[in-house]
Design goal:
764 residues, alpha/beta, Rossmann fold, 9-stranded mixed beta sheet, 6-stranded parallel beta sheet, binds ligand 73E, pyridoxal phosphate
Length: 764
């Protein structure tokens, strides 16, 4: 291998390995691994093929995983070190493709890993955004967004000859397909097909992440999830979505026809997974394409319904896409007659306006004549798919009993649950080598192929020697992470404190604000001389959507607390707060091995599944959480003695919403400690650091609105969290809990999720 690497270095740069800089080293290794990857044959053609459509693929860095999954990283590492080079430097150089917001996009990426690992005949379809989710900076304790390019220094994508014209109402764009190979093992890979417009122009991005939203020919593929708080932003989303399905749809059909597929068997041979509502336009678009090839409308509808399945990821109303009819017509007029006909079919069959596709909405009561037509994308996806699934058991139950009840009554057999999973390669084997080596020394290597074998760890749960080894591995991870945080954030972490971690997108329903109130409560108690049983470091990582003001206010509060608390010599021995800058997949891979408390504290019913909860459990953290999403399944697996649960249950919360009876103010006024914590947000100490308007707005919201009920569980949260911190003082018993968590995490492998999809939905 050494010769091959040397030759490639000569060929690419005319240099010896020794003389390469980090960028060249990165390019060398990624070229080397890509060549190997591309030699791997694609999965054998089977009778049926799946296309996984997703607006997001939150990939994370590729090089390290590719080298590891190909089984050559150790050897490459040694060759480099013989030549005076450090492999991590090259890996660190890679710009991360952050083509997703959070869990939904990361799930799609994990599923690609599993397609490759299981050798399934399945590919991803997406958009080649030039800038992923913004890069986050902090200035004046506030979030600032800047663009996050990743393509410049990457050679991961392979340009193909596949090209399409995509027609919109007022313009046409040319598209090219780029392929990204996804590695899993030496002999198997999968592919994501990313479509880009040829006329894209990165130079139109002005300061921050602002650009002319109307210049579709230049901007269509620039950004993931451009700000859609105004109409131009919403239209751009529609352009993007149609672009993806138009290219993807033709790619499917071309490939199908080329391979001799018969149009009338389309629904039997093709599977299309619609990842959330974003790719729903594939349904009318595919009907359009099939009818243009000669299939009757009725037959096209039948075939596409057989082929498609839809995954719902959230019950939050704001995320269930509804497009203004006029806006859709302004962008994709060719789809409108089809959408109309689909609506007619539905109206002809069912006498329930909640399941109609097109809603005629009264603008205002005074002017009842004036109707706005709204197109419900989820309703299209449900009627014209063969299966609909939720992403954890509780979420799937809520869909059937509440959110999508009217549909369930029509189609009881359509609904399935497929509990989410995570790529064990990325979030365990490749990011926590020390732990996986320890486990291998205890139970052998089989768990790498069969994660359920992790259960064998249970026989060591009372073995003090093993528990101490585990504790030592955790300590090393904490040290490594602390070094990194010192470098990146300039904050000194105390290894002896418990690392309490909440990493996820910032949203009120995830309740980072409740965690911040815990921090305030603890701070105030320390000031009064009531010390926590063990020092604690509360670590946050979160990006707020650029136009989500309340989320930005919460980040602001946390940054102000960080400033106040970490500088306070009376307090910082017992409590520290860190908000990580630009939390992303790479950061996740560093912090997850170091995590001890996994914060999963969403308002029950609101977090469909969560996947960070799975990643942290797998790496030996103990969950502190509500009975929400997949936490419920984690609890069922590990048992009450290995998890810390608190808070109201989903049915209680749903009931409160239905009756509209939650009053934050009553809790605030009744509970002295809560009142003090909430009021501290606008205290002299904090206002000296932060922005009055932002802090007052947050304070006011918590008392008078608190739509996601941060106060409802606060008292119990503080109590249970403090119990967990006390439990931590008995290190071995904490290690025992951690080992129980690792042992039971096998269920959460994304390979299991994909097998479930295959059994329940695709039958590939
Ligand atoms: O609970 C998570 C879930 O684990 C859920 O909030 C997330 O999907 C994860 C994977 O299933 C999710 N993201 C979105 N909706 N649900 C979403 C919606 C609109 C735009 C971007 C993301």
């Amino acid at each position: 291998m050494e010769e091959k690497l040397k030759d490639l270095a000569q060929k690419l740069f005319g240099k010896e390995i020794l003389d390469l800089d980090d960028k060249e080293l990165y390019l060398l290794l990624s070229e080397f691994s890509n060549n190997l990857l591309n030699k791997i044959e694609k999965p054998k053609k089977s009778d049926r093929k799946l296309y996984y459509f997703s607006a997001e693929f939150l990939l994370g860095k590729l090089l390290k995983n590719n080298l590891s999954n190909l089984g050559i990283r150790d050897e490459v590492k040694e060759i480099l070190s013989k030549n005076g080079k450090v492999i991590e430097k090259a890996e660190e150089f890679e710009a991360e493709p952050s083509l997703g917001n959070g869990g939904l996009g990361r799930l799609a990426a994990c599923f690609m890993d599993s397609f490759a690992n299981l050798g399934l005949n399945a590919e991803g379809i997406g958009i080649c955004y030039h800038f992923g989710l913004f890069r986050q900076k902090f200035e004046d304790y506030k979030q600032k967004e800047v663009k996050d390019p990743w393509l410049d220094d990457s050679n991961a994508l392979i340009k193909t000859d596949t090209k399409y014209d995509v027609n919109f109402k007022n313009q046409k764009v040319e598209a090219t397909m780029y392929d990204l190979p996804i590695s899993a093992r030496k002999d198997s890979r999968s592919t994501i097909h990313f479509f880009d417009i040829d006329s894209v122009d990165e130079s139109i991005v002005k300061e921050g992440i602002s650009f002319d939203k109307k210049d579709i020919e230049k901007n269509l593929s620039l950004f993931l999830y451009p700000d859609d708080s105004d109409e131009d932003g919403q239209k751009l989303r529609i352009y993007q979505q149609y672009f993806m399905v138009s290219c993807g749809g033709r790619y499917i059909l071309d490939e199908y026809i080329k391979n001799g597929g018969k149009l009338e068997e389309f629904g039997d041979k093709i599977r299309i997974q619609i990842n959330d509502t974003h790719p729903t336009m594939i349904i009318p678009e595919m009907i359009r394409l099939l009818t243009s090839k000669g299939l009757s409308f009725e037959k096209a509808v039948e075939e596409i319904t057989k082929a498609c399945a839809y995954t719902n990821h959230t019950i939050l109303q704001e995320a269930l896409e509804k497009w203004n009819y006029q806006m859709l017509e302004d962008v994709v007029p060719a789809l409108m007659p089809i959408i109309e006909k689909l609506d007619e079919i539905v109206r002809g069959k069912y006498d329930n306006e909640k399941v109609y596709i097109i809603e005629n909405k009264k603008e205002d009561e005074k002017n009842p004549e004036k109707l706005t037509r709204i197109v419900h994308m989820a309703n299209i996806a449900i009627h014209f798919s063969s299966k609909v699934n939720g992403v954890a058991q509780l979420h799937s139950d809520i869909l059937v009993n509440e959110t999508l009840k009217d549909f369930y009554e029509i189609y009881p057999d359509k609904f399935e649950n497929v509990t989410n999973g995570i790529s064990f390669k990325r979030f365990f084997h490749n990011c926590n080598e020390d732990l996986t080596k320890l486990i291998e020394s205890l139970i052998g290597p089989e768990f790498k192929d069969d994660p359920n074998k992790l259960e064998e760890l249970l026989k060591f749960q009372d073995d003090p020697e093993v528990l101490d080894k585990f504790l030592r591995v955790k300590e090393i991870s904490k040290e490594n992470f602390s070094k990194y945080v010192k470098e990146k954030e300039g904050v000194d972490l105390d290894i002896n404190s418990i690392f309490d971690v909440q990493i996820k997108r910032l949203h009120e329903y995830k309740r980072q604000q409740m965690n911040a109130l815990y921090v305030i409560d603890t701070y105030l108690k320390i000031k009064k001389g009531i010390l926590p049983k063990n020092p604690i470091t509360v670590i946050f990582g979160a990006k707020a959507a650029p136009s989500y003001y309340m989320a930005k206010n919460i980040i602001h509060l946390i940054l102000c607390l960080q400033e106040l608390i970490n500088k306070d010599e009376d307090v910082n021995k017992y409590l520290k707060v860190v908000m990580l800058t630009n939390y992303n997949v790479s950061y996740a891979e560093k912090i997850i091995p170091a995590t001890e408390i996994s914060e999963q504290i969403s308002l029950a019913s609101k977090e469909a599944s969560g996947t960070g909860n799975m990643k942290m459990m797998l790496n030996g953290a103990v969950t502190l959480g509500t009975l929400d999403g997949a936490n419920v399944e984690i609890r069922d697996l590990v048992g009450d003695e290995n998890i810390y649960i608190f808070g109201k249950k989903a049915d209680q919360i749903i009931d409160l919403y239905e009756k509209d009876s939650y009053k934050a103010k009553e809790i605030y006024e009744k509970n002295e400690d809560i009142k003090k914590a909430v009021d501290f947000i606008v205290s002299k100490e904090i206002l000296e650091i932060g922005d009055k308007e932002m802090l007052e707005s947050l304070h006011n919201d918590l008392i008078n609105k608190d739509y996601f009920m941060a106060l409802i569980d606060l008292e119990e949260y503080i109590e249970v969290k403090n119990k967990l911190i006390e439990a931590y003082t008995d290190k071995r018993s904490f290690a025992k809990m951690a080992i129980n968590n690792i042992a039971k995490a096998g269920f959460f492998s994304s390979d299991r999720s994909i097998r479930d999809y295959n059994r329940k939905i695709w039958n590939l």
